[in-house]
Amino acid sequence: MSNTNATTSRSDAKLKQKIAEQSSEIGKLRTRVNELVDNMAILQNDINMFKKNVSKDLLDVIEAIKEKE
């Protein structure tokens, strides 16, 4: 009976260690996902600003061409 308790105790300890390791890894992955989400939001803002600037530049070019005609 003592051997069974020792085996169970070792198994519990291994499981607890594994859970702790997985919790740590999940925490790191959550942090990384949050960073990626933030980076995507920044990138989307940059793309929108780029589109707006290109559109304005094209309108300026078209306006300049019209004035030369």
Total count of helical runs of at least 4 residues: 1
Main pleated sheet: none
Uncertain residue segments: none
Characterize the overall form: rod-shaped
Q: Work out the helicity level.
A: over 70%
**Percent strand:** under 5%
Structural class, please?
A: mainly alpha
Ends distance: 100 Å
Order of helices and strands: H
Set out the fold topology:
Elements: H1 2-68
Protein described:
This protein has one helix at residues 2-68. The chain is mostly helical. It is rod-shaped, with a radius of gyration of 30 Å. It contains one helix and no strands.
TL;DR?
97% of the residues lie in helices and 0% in strands. It has 69 residues and is mainly α.
What are the key terms here?
69 residues, mainly alpha, 1 helix
